[in-house]
Amino acid sequence: MSSPLKIAIIGAGPAGLALARLLQINNITCTIYDLEADRNARTQGGCLDMHEGAAQQCIRECGLYEQFLAVARTEGEVLKIYEPNGTLVMDEGSDIGERRPDSFKGRPEVDRKQLRTMLIDSLYPGSLQWGHKLKAVKTDPTGRTEKYDLQFENKLETGFDLVVGADGAWSKVRHLITDVRPQFSGITGVDAKLSNIDIVDPALSKRVGQGMCLTLGANTTVLSQRNGDGSVKSYGFFRGTEDWHKNCGIDWSNVPAAKEEFTRKYYDGFNDDAKNLLLKADNDDFHPRPMWMLPVGHRWAHRQGLTLLGDAAHLMTPFAGVGVNVAMEDALSLATQIKQWKQNVWDKATNPSSALLIEPVRAYEEEMFARAERYANETMMYLDLFFHERGGVAMCEQFAKAKAEEKEKEKAAAVSVEVIEPSLVAVEA
Ligand SMILES: Cc1cc2nc3c(=O)[nH]c(=O)nc-3n(C[C@H](O)[C@H](O)[C@H](O)COP(=O)(O)OP(=O)(O)OC[C@H]3O[C@@H](n4cnc5c(N)ncnc54)[C@H](O)[C@@H]3O)c2cc1C
């Protein structure tokens, strides 16, 4: 039986796009709606590190691994850490200081735009509807069916069996599932982009290197990352208050003056290189950015016909660099559940009802809640290391500790192989 299910995915971010692709290649029809006017309506921000286990597995299942390899930047996997005075305490490019544990390997960088383009181009023509800003999800007004209507800014779409909210931090689908809203993470500051850094300031470009470059002071940081388009994205973040950007007295509409005032007020003791990553940023790409998160361990009671994935389900701060990876693992997990359910239950049912969808979606949610909680805890640990009284020293100590633990585990594994091997020989003999 061909699927008469009506599935809507709200949001064409990495999570929604990956889910749509995975459903479509398994002949499960869905429509994806996004508020943006088209794929180029907004610049897509910095790059993302795509982990071997989670995100890359999702890309493989999407059948897009070759295309991913063509845009992935393995050279971007290196990290540098500076003290505010300019002392380089760690440089994976030149082996200064302790490298990160091996668990950080296999995480090439990809520009958001390239990832998004690759996924968009893989979808069935017409299945991605731009210019659809969701205002609300409504239950069937007659109360006779478990179907949902989607109220967009300019139109109504009706009769969905499953609505998946992949609409990011401020999800409109989330309202129907839980009262929980994102909370301020305690971290705020600015988001800045410096285009063509090789031309604008070659020395600064060299300082950043090919990957991530952190300048870590006491609870105050400049976090920079090279993008594939020759730009460097920097975040001037520190511990602050939710309304800091409104109350700090900086006039954000006058960007050159805002850049001067911001670095003068908050980056006393940081050397010129660190400050220049903010001061030399493009005037049309420098703005305040408070960081939000959902509570660690956020979960909800399942509601038939609705679910969330990606940031809509478990918004985290970016300090463990896992957000998109968890999002894509969600997409793979939900698509796998729906695919198996369709083959084993829906296609075989004599009288199929969308109530049958409860089981696979609930199974996805249970698996996702536990996984997201693990990543959210890791994220909190890294937040405290990025914004630490002792600056980068604390981060380097953590890496050294994790490396030592990794070595201990390797040793223990080698010993257990030695113990097992003689008995195997004995059995074979
Ligand atoms: C500064 C920063 C740096 C980060 N760095 C990293 C990193 O290095 N590594 C990493 O793994 N993660 C990182 N993240 C996190 C990562 O960006 C997110 O986890 C990831 O983008 C989540 O994908 P998503 O598809 O769930 O949501 P999003 O990417 O937010 O996509 C949501 C989509 O929904 C659409 N939408 C929103 N509202 C509506 C509506 N009402 N109607 C219709 N459409 C709507 C939006 O237009 C958008 O296309 C970072 C985040 C930030 C803020």
Name the structural class: alpha/beta
What's the CATH class of the largest domain, please?
A: Alpha Beta
What is the end-to-end distance?
55 Å
Instruction: Give the total of beta strands.
Output: 19
Overall pLDDT score: 91
Radius of gyration: 24 Å
Q: Helix share of residues?
A: 25-40%
CATH superfamily of the largest domain: FAD/NAD(P)-binding domain
Q: Give the total of domains.
A: 2
Number of helices: 13
Q: What percentage of the residues does DSSP assign to strands (E)? A: 15-25%
Within the CATH hierarchy, at the fold level, what is the topology of the largest domain? Answer: FAD/NAD(P)-binding domain
Q: Order of strands side by side in the largest beta sheet? A: 5-4-14-15-16-13-17
- Runs with pLDDT <50, length 5+? none
Largest sheet: 7 strands, mixed
Identify every distinct bound molecule in the structure, by name, code or SMILES: flavin-adenine dinucleotide
Q: What is the molecular shape?
A: globular
Give a structural overview.
By secondary structure, the protein is an alpha/beta fold. The protein folds into two domains: 7-73 and 109-182 and 294-386, FAD/NAD(P)-binding domain; 186-290, D-Amino Acid Oxidase, Chain A, domain 2, CATH 3.30.9. 38% of the residues lie in helices and 19% in strands. It contains 13 helices and 19 strands. It has helices at 14-24, 55-61, 65-71, 112-121, 197-200, 202-208, 244-247, 255-266, 272-279, 311-314, 323-344, 358-386, 392-428, and strands at residues 7-10, 31-33, 47-49, 79-82, 88-91, 109-111, 128-129, 134-139, 148-152, 156-160, 162-165, 183-184, 187-194, 212-216, 220-226, 232-239, 286-288, 292-293, 306-308. The strands form five sheets. It has a seven-stranded mixed β-sheet, with helices on both faces. A five-stranded parallel β-sheet has the order 7-2-1-11-19. Strands 8-9-10 form a three-stranded antiparallel β-sheet, with no helix packed on it. A hairpin with a 3-residue loop joins strand 14 (212-216) and strand 15. The longest helix is centred in the last third of the chain and has 37 residues, at 392-428. The mean pLDDT is 91. It binds flavin-adenine dinucleotide (FAD). Residues 10-16, 33-36, 46, 48-49, 132-134, 166-168, 172, 310-312, 318, 321-325, 327 line the site of flavin-adenine dinucleotide (FAD).
